[in-house]
Amino acid sequence: MSLITLQSIIHLISHIFFILIAFWSLQSLRTDALIKKYHIPQARTLYILVAIALGYTVSQFFIDFILSIQNVLLF
To answer: What are the residue boundaries of the structural domains of the chain, listed by start?
Structure first.
């Protein structure tokens, strides 16, 4: 398995992991007061999009952080 393939798999797993963590943590928010009546599908879509955005951002931060530490240790 090549290095690029391995890095791609690690990135995908990291993104999915942190998106699931973001989705799980967003469930603790009480959003029922903010949702209008009969707008449940739109609220669910927004909920998923926020979880994806938050999870991707956190995942990218950790990946960049780890790469930065590796670059510092190589010099």
So the answer is: 3-74
